[in-house]
Design goal:
Layout: H1 3-13, H2 27-34, E1 43-47, H3 54-60, E2 65-70, H4 73-83, E3 91-94, E4 106-112, H5 121-134, E5 135-146, E6 153-154, E7 157-158, H6 164-172, E8 176-186, E9 192-201
Parallel strand pairs: 1-2, 1-4, 2-3, 4-5
Antiparallel strand pairs: 5-9, 6-7, 8-9
The structure holds S-adenosylmethionine.
Length: 204
């Protein structure tokens, strides 16, 4: 089955608040984005944004240049529906991140729980090179994955787990690390998943 079909089916089957990764408010992402002191016109892309509510809060904070990328058209359609006319100012991009051809540069690349689905080293390399090319010099990257103590699978798919050190090693080839934090996410049915978030900067 095509990856896009797989994800569309997942989004068709369940409402956003019944997905394991659902967050009513993406606290850690918002906290890390807040620390960057971005201007409200900064270009921000959320990779694998799906139905995440991050975009709702960014709009509320006054950000005006937001893009959402996801392999699942279904998820972006649902987000568009939720946002109503507020979605008019957002760029919705249906694409596999490993074949993404950006048409603009970004000041922030944010990814919660998408990168870890790339289990083939070639896809990881493609992701890094696309993210590097897509970011402005001085731009930031926030990446969040399951920690080494987190689950082995997500949405029925095997994922790659990372420690802070692992992420620093993988992304450090292209970017300068600025911080890492560990946190535990509670799923809508009360189980827990250990996550790690790391921030990076493109310095050249
Ligand atoms: C676990 S969900 C996380 C959703 C969102 N980031 C959040 O935190 O609520 C993973 C998302 O990544 C998307 N995805 C998976 N593989 C992808 C790929 N290769 N390219 C783009 N999006 C992908 C899925 O459709 C899904 O929306």
């Amino acid at each position: 089955m095509e990856k896009s079909q797989y994800w569309d089916d997942i989004y068709k089957k369940k409402d956003e608040s019944h997905q394991s990764w659902f967050q009513d408010r993406p606290e850690k992402s918002l906290e890390m984005i807040g620390e960057l002191n971005l201007t409200k016109t900064a270009s921000i892309i959320d990779i694998g944004g799906g139905e995440s509510r991050l975009v709702d809060y960014l709009l509320e904070e006054g950000f005006t240049n937001i893009s959402l990328l996801d392999i699942s058209k279904e998820s972006l359609d649902k987000t568009k529906q939720r946002l109503g006319t507020k979605a008019d100012v957002i760029q919705l991009i249906i694409s596999d991140v490993t074949t993404f051809k950006p048409t603009q540069k970004y000041d922030l690349w944010h990814d919660r729980a998408t990168f870890h689905f790339l289990t083939d080293i070639k896809d990881v390399e493609k992701y890094l090179s696309i993210a590097y090319d897509a970011l402005n010099v001085g731009g930031s990257l926030i990446i969040s994955t399951f920690n080494t103590t987190g689950p082995d699978k997500c949405s029925g798919l095997t994922i790659s787990k990372y420690s802070q050190e692992d992420l620093k090693k993988v992304f450090g080839k292209f970017f300068q690390n600025t911080k890492c934090i560990e946190t535990t996410h509670t799923t809508p049915w009360g189980t827990t998943q250990d996550f790690v978030y790391c921030g990076f900067k493109k310095i050249s």
